[in-house]
Amino acid sequence: MRRYASWLLLALLSSPLLAASPDGVVAVSHPAAAAAGARMLAAGGNAIDAAAAVQFALNVVEPQSSGIGGGGFMLIHLAKTGETFFVDSRERAPVAANPGMFSPAGQPMPFSLASTSGLAVGVPGTLRGIDTALARWGTMTLADTLAPAIRLAEHGFRVNRFLAADIANDGGRTLIHPETAAIFRPGGVALAEGDWLVQPDLARTFKRIAAKGPDAFYRGPLAQALVAAQRRTRSELGAAGAGRMTLADLRNYQAAIRSPLYGRYRGWTLATMPPPSSGGITVLQMLGLLERFPLGDASQGYGFGSPKTLHVMIEAMRLGFADRAMWSGDDDAVTVPQRALLHPGYVAMRAARIRPDLRMDTPLAGDPLPWDKQAPEPQRMPRAGQESPHTTHFSVIDRWLNVVSYTSTIEFTWGSGITVPGYGFLLNNELTDFNFVPASDPASGNPGANDVAPGKRPRSSMAPMLLLKDGRPVAAYGSPGGATIINSVFSVTLNLIDHGMSLQQAIDAPRLSVTHATGKISCEGGAPFMQPGFSIASQDALRTLGHPAPGEPGANGCGEAIGSVQAVAIDLATGAQHGAADPRREGTVIRVRSTAEPGR
Ligand code: GLU
Q1: E runs forming strands in 452-593
Q2: Ligand 1 atom 4: the closest Cα is on which residue?
Q3: Catalytic sites, residue numbers
Q4: CA 14, CA 506: separation in Å to the nearest integer?
Q5: The predicted structure's pLDDT at residue 385
């Protein structure tokens, strides 16, 4: 344990890419949004102020991934009190939602149609969440933190290659709804890298919110326009595809403040998101499943990327995702046996199924309930709709060592594709994270944890993470990527703790992901920064163990990028702050040396 601890401290200290800074660091997937946060820090603001500005700016420069039409989870660590908590602004189902709404005749609606209809739109939470965080823990006003986003929307910015690629490869999403096409395909031509994008409607919306507060969004003309927009349906679905959100749903939306889930791994403490996300539980459970394997020890055949390491990681993912499918959902609506799923006795029982030299048969969900006192038999594993590789994560630290680790989303890339007419922002399709066909089955003990219900939050995978040592934050990170978020956060944690990587190396290293008990593997390879890679020999060795490794024997089957991790870290010995950003997007670290007098 001691060895792991000193490795990580050393790694965080010795990264050549990261310079120390006393006054705050932001790590964001886009430079303009990073600059928005840095401006708040430079003007004396704290990490919460900076996070608000980053999120609003991302709505302008990464509109396909997150914004006020969506929701998210903001982890806040307050240095003064040592408290860590979440502002949960997850979208909620309207009061008129019901379990069978995505399968009106018992058959699931096609994802492509359901996810681009109003039915998929959850009551958005991002603005309410930010306003709640700013009012309670920020030092600046909503208007202050909106100012950089207003400038970016009003004066424009340069479309980067990631936004251009998402417009070009949008599966028709920016075409289907005319208001969205008008912004991103003006005159019918897709914006390309280098084009200048001005968003006057969005600028006006932000100005109204700056002047009047969140009521300018949750009530009045904007709310009416939003409710009308989500009544749209794809013609193939008819009335069944129309959204059910009302003005009352919007008016009544409140963010929730939640305590984190805490876990221990090799002497480190991790604080992460509880339900309605499955992300935190599953990452912590998978770490627990692997604690008995010496993952960092190459002399025993482990070490980064070795077949033995990859094999046990895959097995942990298969077990974790089997439980996730059965047990995770919105704990405010259905009891999630979170403590039982992380109970050392339960985790040890599940871990015993992992054999170092043989792939296990497809695991069913386990039965954690005896560890939680009740005991119905688990069985079926429901599948939700699809999740896309988008969403966004960013991390901020300020000079007082307050930390924010924030993952936010409109669900699929481009969300529902519906832009609220005249207001310039996209609506989410978050409700497709629910089970399309209800899974609740009292006879078999399936709780239907992720079935649709009025006011319920769809199950998420988002897992903003805070790594602590002796109660003090050491690193904050997270990732987008739908269900793969869990594996990206898991992998970065292993890279830091087991493989002794620096923060930047831990982010750059190639990732592997399995999001279902059946074990279909995706893995990254190819990009020069992804070092060390997964060798062809390792991929072949996985096949020998019985895994469905991608590609052909003797050839590299690893390819597409997984996730986008933006992280900050603190050197416990000196208090120096660092950041590391992900080259999988235009990840940017800005270190700030402020001139203003500190607020708090
Ligand atoms: N809707 C997903 C979730 O909440 C995020 C989507 C994504 O990352 O692409 O887990």
Answers
A1: 465-469, 472-477, 512-514, 521-523, 567-570, 577-580, 588-591
A2: 460
A3: 391
A4: 13
A5: 55
For ligand 1, is residue 462 a contact (CB within 6 Å)?
yes
- Kindly report the three-state secondary structure assignment for every residue of 341-399: HCCHHHHHHHHCCCECCECCCCCCCCCCHHHHCCCCCCCCCCCECCCCCCCEEEEEEEC
d(CA 586, CA 581): 8
Tokens of 215: 């009521």
In 12-114, beta strands by DSSP E:
24-28, 71-77, 84-88
Rounded Cα distance, 139 and 41, in Å = 11
Question: What's the 275 CA to ligand 1 centre distance in angstroms?
Answer: 14
- Check if the beta carbon of residue 296 is closer than 8 Å to that of residue 289: no
> Torsions phi, psi of 426, nearest 5?
-85, 145
Read off the pLDDT of each residue in 542-558 and give the average, rounded to a whole number. Answer: 94
Ligand 1 lined by 388 (C-beta under 6 Å): yes
**Nearest residue to 331 (alpha-carbon basis) of 364, 271, 372, 290:** 372
- Answer yes or no: is pLDDT of 270 > 90: yes
- Specify whether the CB–CB gap between 540 and 554 falls below 8 A: yes
Tell me 521's DSSP state: E
CB 559 within 8 A of CB 524: yes
Q: Is the CB of 390 under 6 A from ligand 1?
A: yes
pLDDT of the residue at 373: 61
What is the pLDDT at residue 597? 53
